[in-house]
Each structure stands twice: as structure tokens, then as C-alpha cells.
Design brief:
CATH superfamily of the largest domain: Spore Coat Polysaccharide Biosynthesis Protein SpsA, Chain A
Strand content: 5-15%
CATH class of the largest domain: Alpha Beta
CATH architecture of the largest domain: Alpha-Beta Complex
Oligomer: single chain
CATH topology of the largest domain: Spore Coat Polysaccharide Biosynthesis Protein SpsA, Chain A
Helix content: 40-55%
Distance between the termini: 41 Å
Length: 378
């Protein structure tokens, strides 16, 4: 009796996950891929928070200064978040554009908000009708800003852009590259399906008036993150503005993958920590069911050895269907966004994903976090 109940549970979790992947796949097909040379009428403020980025800040500055967007139509505000290295000096010494400013965050400003406080402070000290955020460890195509904003019309409140890991030819980097591409495509597909859930603050844009209308970050100001997807979800739920995803390849922002397993663990633990703070309780339930699906894969290995060989059937079915549907998503994403994405490490990345999601999902909910040499309490 117990065996049959467990088999049914595992089957239902599989069905739920496949339906979730199907929504993503269909959503990718619905994304607007039309060409446009539209430049928004409003002034744009690009906010770039940074802390101890001496290794990356000059590359960021050079790619920002090379933007083809009309210089008189945008400003760049680098927000120094208590850096202890020479990042601010590097910026000041090498800055050559009048529309680029460097400001420092007061030590007592929204202390518990961490990166979000730097973004918030940058918004307060900027003037643009459109706010764009990116990270100081990112590199941008010269047409990045133009490409990201070209479909941001009057009805659009929030634009999510693609982010890609740079391949440094190391095996761990290749695994991260394809796995991260899957996350980006998941966010894109859910936006296309009208269910905006995840995005990345390294490449987003939103209207200042919409940000003010929903109260900015006030609902999650004490969370260590949430300056991206929690804001996007709030705009989708509380306003009538459209949420869009940029499919222009020139709008891709590139950043380095994690150098070590420890860095990767801390990053994904931070990302997982936001899940239980989503306002949509049905979305939280869906995420819990997906998490249980992944735990179920490990449990089924144990059950197939020590309980019944029938669990081998549900395990094999779960793995094969997961591989098939996620491969379809990656292939579609390769055509839409990432033409040079290598699929050689796909199987390894899939297996790696099962274990890291289980571990970081649990640690993100119950453990403390670390970001930029800071210990962060949830």
C-alpha cells in the first residue's frame, strides 16, 4: 500500500514538473523578437553598485563609456558600497565621460538591505525616468543599452535582459555556463508565458514612476536581495504595465562564472533565499513541489535499491523526461539568444543541478548568507 502511494506521489511530482517546463518552452516561443530602432523619449539612469571590484571595475567602465546610446540621453551612477580596495580611485582616475558619476553610500543607510540599499540610494541620487541596473563585474556590448530599451514603450513597466557567463575554458566554467543559460531561459520563458518569476539585476530596466507606484523596495528592504525579481513580481501584480524580456543578442550582459565551488554555493544559496518571500503563495507552492521533485529523484534511488524495483521505473522516467524537456528549452534558447552555447556538458550539468538545487535550496531557506566578505542574516 505504501509503495503504491509513493509511486503515485513521485508520478504526480513528475507531471507537475513537466507541465512547468512546458510553460517555459511555450513562453519562449511567445517572446517578441521583432526588430526595432526605437529610443525611449525619457532620460535614462544606469545604476551600478560596486564593492571591492578592483579586478573588474575598469572593464566595466570601458564598456559603459563605449555605449552607442546618445550620451545626452543617459547618465551612469556608480554607487560605492563601502569598498575597502581601490575600486573608487580606479573609477575616478579613468573616468572620461561627463555623464558618469561616482557616489559613496553612507554607512548608516538601510544597513540590512546590503546590495539593495546601494541600488535604492543610486535611484534617489539619479534623475532618469527610466532606471537601468547592472553589475560592476559585467561587460556590455556597445549597443547594450540601446538594444535593452528599444522595445520599452509606454505600456512597458519592466524589462528583463539576458545575462551570460563567460567561458574561460575550464570544465567547471562550462558546466556553469550551460546551467546558468537554463536559468536565464527559464526566466525568459515564464515572462513570455505571462508568469514573470525570475530575472537578474545585472540586466534590468524599469520606469521610475512604476518603481514609485509600487513603493520601490519597501516591502523587502530588510532582505539581503530582491532588487530584481521581487520588484518585477510586484510590478506585474500591482500594476497594469507589461513585463518584457529582451531577446536582442546585443542586449546580453556577460560576466565571469564562479571561480570555485564555494563561491558557486554562496551565490546560489543567496538566490534561493528569496523564494519564500514571494507574495504569490501559489508560486511558492509550485516552487516547493519542484523542490520535492528534485528530492524525490534522490529518494527513488534509495527506494529502488532497498524497497522495490518498481521505483527504478519512476526514476528512469523522471530523469529521461527531465532531460528531454530541458534539452528542448536549451535548444530553443540557443536559437533565440545563445547561438554559441556548447551542449557538450549538458548531461553533467543536469546531474550537477539535481544535487546543488537540493543543497542550496535548503541552505538558502534556513542558513545565513555571505556576500562580498559580509555575513548576512536572513
Amino acid at each position: 500500500m505504501l509503495e503504491n502511494i509513493l509511486l503515485i506521489v513521485f508520478t504526480l511530482l513528475l507531471i507537475h514538473y513537466i507541465l512547468f517546463l512546458s510553460v517555459i518552452y511555450k513562453g519562449l516561443a511567445k517572446l517578441n523578437q521583432g526588430a526595432s530602432n526605437h529610443v525611449p523619449g525619457g532620460f535614462v539612469s544606469v545604476i551600478i553598485p560596486f564593492r571591492n571590484e578592483s579586478e573588474n571595475i575598469l572593464k566595466s567602465l570601458k564598456s559603459i563609456e563605449a555605449q552607442s546610446y546618445p550620451q545626452e540621453k543617459f547618465e551612469v551612477v556608480y554607487v560605492n558600497d563601502s569598498s575597502t580596495d581601490d575600486s573608487p580611485k580606479i573609477l575616478e582616475k579613468n573616468r572620461s565621460r561627463e555623464n558618469i558619476r561616482i557616489i559613496s553610500l553612507p554607512e548608516d543607510y538601510s544597513i540590512s538591505a546590503h546590495k539593495k540599499r546601494a541600488v535604492r540610494y543610486g535611484i534617489e541620487k539619479s534623475t532618469g525616468e527610466i532606471v537601468v541596473t547592472t553589475d560592476a563585474d559585467c561587460i556590455h556590448n556597445e549597443d547594450w543599452l540601446k538594444s535593452l530599451l528599444k522595445n520599452m514603450d509606454d505600456e512597458t513597466g519592466f524589462m528583463s535582459g539576458p545575462v551570460e557567463f563567460i567561458d574561460d575554458e575550464k570544465f567547471f566554467s562550462k558546466i556553469q555556463k550551460i546551467e546558468f543559460a537554463g536559468l536565464v531561459l527559464t526566466g525568459a520563458g515564464l515572462i513570455g508565458a505571462g508568469k514573470p518569476t525570475i530575472c537578474n539585476a545585472a540586466n534590468i530596466a524599469y520606469k521610475r514612476k512604476v518603481y514609485n507606484e509600487v513603493g520601490g523596495f519597501k516591502d523587502q528592504i530588510n532582505l539581503s536581495s530582491g532588487d530584481d525579481e521581487l520588484l518585477m513580481q510586484k510590478i506585474a501584480k500591482d500594476t497594469n504595465y507589461d513585463i518584457k524580456f529582451s531577446t536582442d543578442k546585443k542586449s546580453i550582459v556577460r560576466t565571469s562564472s564562479n571561480k570555485s565551488l564555494g563561491e558557486f554555493y554562496q551565490q546560489r544559496k543567496r538566490w534561493a533565499s528569496k523564494g519564500l518571500f514571494y507574495r504569490d503563495k501559489s508560486l511558492i507552492l509550485k516552487l516547493i513541489l519542484i523542490y520535492l521533485f528534485y528530492i524525490g529523484l534522490i529518494i527513488q534511488v534509495y527506494f529502488s535499491i532497498f524497497l522495490s524495483r518498481y521505483f527504478i521505473l519512476t526514476l528512469v522516467a523522471s530523469l529521461l523526461l527531465k532531460l528531454f524537456f530541458e534539452f528542448r528549452i536549451v535548444i530553443k534558447g540557443k536559437r533565440i539568444l545563445f547561438p554559441y552555447l556548447s551542449l557538450k556538458t549538458f548531461i553533467v550539468a543536469e546531474l550537477f543541478q539535481v544535487f546543488y538545487l537540493i543543497i542550496t535550496g535548503f541552505a538558502g531557506v534556513f542558513g545565513n548568507l555571505r556576500w562580498k566578505e559580509r555575513k548576512i542574516k536572513r
